[in-house]
Specification:
The protein is mainly β. It has one domain (31-342): Methylamine Dehydrogenase, Chain H (7 Propeller). It has one helix and 28 strands. The longest helix has 25 residues, at 3-27. The chain is globular. Mean pLDDT is 93; it is low at 8-25.
């Protein structure tokens, strides 16, 4: 091929080659079921948390947290005495975990090695979702009944701030470098932006065309929020610097968790209707659905292992719903964790 012909063809072929590379990176094998971990016993569940470095999965389960070794998929212990536990946040540099105990309006501070409770700290009513800010060694517990966040000094085991939110909080995410915590206000169709230095809400951003924000994840590199919206059945991508809604894609019904994998640029939205929508962040301004993964009904909460790129979803069996019920009664002993990974 002559030099002149190469110069002519290169501008024409370059967009095609870049497109093929994007498709290849985005595809990388569809997600498929690779395992199931029985939990059993009685009671429901809520959030799941993965510790990729320690190879652990924490599963909230009624009055305890079940701890699973993700290398063997075996249960290795429990965190007990956590009535109505909703979730776990991890402070690995302190060797501590934090649980949100919804039935007693307290947070447990736990030794991650022994799984023993070191202290309990009171919160505002209804602690539910939570996260940890390693820059200040503080835990944020978002309290639904109080429409507020309780901020706890994890090392000192004490409350350092209460942040009024002006709406019912749902899932939250943090950008440590920006000094911002983001939280869905489900009943306001807004994201509350919290300054971690002053412990105040500095602004609220509407999520329209989304409605009923539940799950929330963040791409800190590109300053993007991913908001799973239950009412609008959509996944909204928002600029985390100015609140501008950039894109929106459809998802299933009953979303309760989102996750973002920086290694693959995949975004996950797990839904109670038995689907998990997987989208790809093609660019900071473009979001494309690449797979609708069939899971099981009620598999609405999820955790992502960014090291293995696996996702974990909790589900159980229910009796047929009675008239007027949204769903039936959970059948004891049927709780399990579904494990999904990328195929070849």
């Amino acid at each position: 091929m002559t030099t002149r012909l190469k110069k002519f063809l290169l501008p024409l072929l370059l967009p095609i080659l870049l497109g093929l590379l994007t498709v290849t990176a985005r595809a990388g094998g569809a997600y498929q079921l690779i395992g199931s971990i029985p939990i059993g016993t009685e009671g429901g569940w809520d959030y799941l948390t993965v510790d990729p470095a320690a190879q652990r999965l924490y599963v909230s389960h009624a009055t305890r947290v079940v701890v699973i070794d993700t290398a063997s998929d075996q249960i290795i212990g429990e965190i007990t005495n956590t009535p109505g536990v909703h979730g776990v946040a991890l402070a690995p540099e302190l060797g501590r975990g934090i649980t949100s105990n919804g039935r007693e309006d307290q947070a447990s501070l736990v030794d991650l090695q022994t799984l023993q409770t070191l202290a309990k700290v009171p919160t505002k009513p209804g602690p539910d979702s939570l996260l940890y800010n390693p820059a200040r060694q503080e835990a944020y517990l978002f309290c639904g009944r109080a429409q507020a966040a309780t901020v706890i000094d994890v090392r000192g085991a004490k409350v350092v701030a209460t942040i009024p939110l002006g709406g019912r909080p749902e899932a939250a995410a943090i950008d440590v470098r920006a000094g911002r915590v983001y939280d869905n206000l489900e009943d306001q169709n807004e994201v509350a932006v919290i300054d971690t230095a002053s412990h105040t809400v500095v602004t609220n951003w509407p999520i329209a065309p989304g409605a009923g924000g539940s799950g929330l994840a963040v791409d800190v590199r590109h300053h993007r929020l991913f908001i799973g919206c239950g009412e609008s059945k959509s996944l909204v991508m928002m600029n985390a610097q100015n609140g501008r809604v950039i894109a929106s894609v459809p998802i299933g019904a009953g979303v309760d968790a989102d996750a973002f994998d920086p290694g693959t640029k995949l975004v996950f939205a797990s839904c109670g209707d038995g689907t998990t929508t997987i989208a790809h962040e093609d660019s900071p301004d473009r979001l494309t659905v690449v797979q609708t993964l069939a899971t099981e009904r009620s598999a609405r909460t999820m955790a992502l292992d960014v090291r293995t790129h696996r996702i974990y979803l909790a589900t159980a069996k229910f009796t047929p719903p009675a008239p007027g019920q949204r769903r039936g009664t959970l059948i004891p002993g049927t709780l399990k964790i579904l494990v999904y990974g990328r195929g070849p």
